[in-house]
């Protein structure tokens, strides 16, 4: 193949199907990419830029271009092209999430431990949500602070409240408290961190990427899908793993190695997340669509006045 004509932005897999998106997200959420240096990532970005400009360096192979695009998609924001902070990248969800979730599930019995690990988790989530927002809608430091405090307070109140309420409940119910807190906080953290999109709308374009205006309804749809994806990402590990741990902790050999229960849960959460991070990201297309008829009346009428019935759908980046 003549790589000088290679379309590096063409989807490698069909993004209209779940399996196509799953292969795509398995590729870009590969935790090994989080180990690469900034210089390696910048080199990949330069190669992607060269390919877009039609000046691929001599000797470059198609596989090298695919790998460069993988690194670019994993580390650079799709709206701004800027390198994202390491902790906020989806490729860091497995190592970061497995450590935090594992210890949340292990240390759920005492209020101080619940408070500490929920605070750590919401700090992590706030950074991930900010990093993966739709960057076309700026957010001020004050709004970031309010979002962070609100989500963290919600998570702590839910976790501590349920922890106290379930003192006399079956042990398994108490083990599920961290998931209830995480799910509740996600419903607050993500919308709050991306409040500007809800208040002012996000940019919507036609199928040829021509900007058509800003839509609040599109923002609500995109953010709702992200909330569902994040809860789905956490659910298997935080619901199934407590059942497994409760059963295996009864064995004598597990009683003798209690000091390893925490690290064991961390590793088991990692196994869940390796599959659930790409699977959850794949639930909905990254390039989200909405029928023009479902937009706000003002924007809908504006589009129809300019294009008639020629534009049936608008598209936008829902974020991750």
TrEMBL record:
Lipid bilayer topology: Multi-pass membrane protein
Location in or out of the cell: Mitochondrion membrane
Domain of life, per lineage: Eukaryota
TM annotation in the entry: 227-245, 266-285
InterPro entries: Mtc
Main location per the UniProt record: mitochondrion
Keywords from the named record: Amino-acid transport, Membrane, Mitochondrion, Transmembrane, Transmembrane helix, Transport
Family, similarity comment: Belongs to the sideroflexin family.
NCBIfam families reported for this sequence: mtc
Protein name: Sidoreflexin
Lineage of the species this protein comes from: Eukaryota, Metazoa, Chordata, Craniata, Vertebrata
């Amino acid at each position: 193949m003549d790589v000088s004509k290679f379309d590096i932005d063409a989807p490698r897999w069909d993004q209209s199907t779940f399996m196509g998106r799953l292969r795509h997200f398995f590729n870009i959420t590969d935790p090994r990419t989080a180990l690469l240096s900034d210089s390696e990532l910048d080199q990949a970005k330069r190669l992607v830029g060269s390919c877009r400009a039609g000046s691929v360096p001599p000797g470059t192979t198609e596989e090298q271009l695919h790998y460069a695009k993988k690194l670019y998609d994993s580390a650079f924001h799709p709206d701004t092209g800027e390198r994202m902070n390491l902790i906020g990248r989806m490729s860091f969800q497995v190592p970061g999430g497995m450590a935090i979730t594992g210890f949340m599930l292990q240390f759920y019995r005492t209020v101080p431990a619940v408070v500490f690990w929920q605070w750590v988790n919401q700090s992590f989530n706030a950074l991930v949500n900010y990093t993966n927002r739709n960057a076309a809608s700026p957010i001020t430091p004050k709004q970031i602070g309010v979002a962070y405090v609100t989500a963290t307070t919600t998570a702590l109140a839910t976790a501590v409240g349920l922890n106290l309420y379930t003192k006399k409940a079956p042990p398994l119910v108490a083990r599920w408290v961290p998931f209830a807190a995480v799910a509740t906080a996600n419903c607050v953290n993500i919308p709050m961190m991306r409040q500007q999109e809800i208040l002012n709308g996000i940019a919507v374009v036609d199928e040829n990427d021509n900007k058509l205006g800003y839509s609040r309804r599109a923002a609500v749809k995109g953010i709702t899908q992200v909330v569902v994806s994040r809860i789905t990402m956490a659910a298997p590990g935080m619901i199934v793993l407590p059942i497994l741990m409760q059963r295996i902790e009864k064995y004598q050999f597990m009683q003798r190695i209690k000091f390893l229960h925490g690290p064991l849960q961390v590793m088991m959460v990692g196994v869940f997340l390796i599959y659930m991070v790409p699977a959850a990201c794949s639930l909905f297309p990254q390039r989200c669509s909405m029928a023009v008829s479902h937009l706000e009346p003002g924007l809908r009428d504006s589009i129809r006045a300019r294009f008639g019935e020629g534009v049936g759908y608008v598209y936008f980046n829902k974020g991750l």
